[in-house]
From TrEMBL:
A Pfam family per the record: Trm112p
Protein's organism: Sphingomonas ginsenosidivorax
GO annotations of cellular component type: cytosol
PANTHER family in the cross-refs: PROTEIN PREY, MITOCHONDRIAL, ZGC:162634
Protein family per UniProt: Belongs to the UPF0434 family.
Highest taxon, organism lineage: Bacteria
Higher taxonomy: Bacteria, Pseudomonadati, Pseudomonadota, Alphaproteobacteria, Sphingomonadales
HAMAP family the UniProt entry points to: UPF0434 (MF_01187)
Protein name as annotated: UPF0434 protein FSB78_16200
Amino acid sequence: MSTTIDPWLLDRLVCPATRTPLRYDEAAQELVSEAAGLAYPIREGVPVMLVEEARRIDAG
């Protein structure tokens, strides 16, 4: 099930670890922090902005 994130909300959300902007990956349903190398899940349309719940992503 694909969910879209409100652009207004996306403009205001930042990575809790680095305080940098996030990129929305619609296919994976994640908010990606390139700076932290983390991807935060979106569950039932709600971003889970907890470092403990994020998955590590490859730098390359």
